[in-house]
Amino acid sequence: MSQARGATSMRRLVGLFNTSLSSATDPTAAAVNSSKLIADPRKFKNLADRFKKSSESSKFRNYSKKAYSITVQRLALAKQFSLIDDILQHQKKYQEISQEGFVIRLMMLYGKAGMFEHAHKLLDEMPELNCQRTVDSLNALLSAYLHSDKFDIVGKLLEELPEKIRIDPDLISYNTVIKAYCEMGSMDSAVSVLDTLEKKGLEPDIVTFNTLLDGFFSRGRIADGEGIWEFRASDEVVW
């Protein structure tokens, strides 16, 4: 495929995905489109096949992140999870699979589709794919569980996984756990992570405190939220 032809194909593909996603925001259009796709599920298969064909272009793989996201989102809305796995597994045949950033993108896409187990499996496979794992991979997996609404598992993962894969968590790791606890309404557990940060020699940042503040205020715990605010002020966190 020539570069000119590849660029044209990418523009057409992204245009197709953008049009489909825009229609989904219109309730009437979404209902019509949904009924058509249910009546003819081959359209989903054709979408996946076109995506895999476009993946043959290295330019598409590296610069069409939006097309990846929109395709997975559309298939997820239609509960076409096997096709999501198909197009993401297909990416393993390309050289980028040995790059951590590329693998993280795939893990995040699994997470946004609610396919957290597939994201976890991909993390486990990284050594076999000749791809080095760092704390960024760990954080991507935690985020995948978070996006999959598996809030109760995020904290357990951070307790068990770092030792298993020999990676030290960082502030982003703990901020993700705090977010998960807040989403569960387990505010005491969320605050307890501050003690863990201190023991680990890590300083909370604006994300840490904003997450806690939002968690308390959204649940009407104003006094507790103000306590976090005062703690932040005394800790001189830069806003």
TrEMBL record:
One of its GO terms (biological process) is mitochondria-nucleus signaling pathway. Keywords: Repeat. PPR repeats lie at residues 170-204. It comes from the Eukaryota. The keyword Repeat applies. Coiled coil: none annotated. One of its GO terms (cellular component) is chloroplast. Pfam families: PPR, PPR_2. Belongs to the PPR family. P subfamily. This is 3S-linalool/(E)-nerolidol /(E,E)-geranyl linalool synthase. It comes from Hibiscus syriacus.
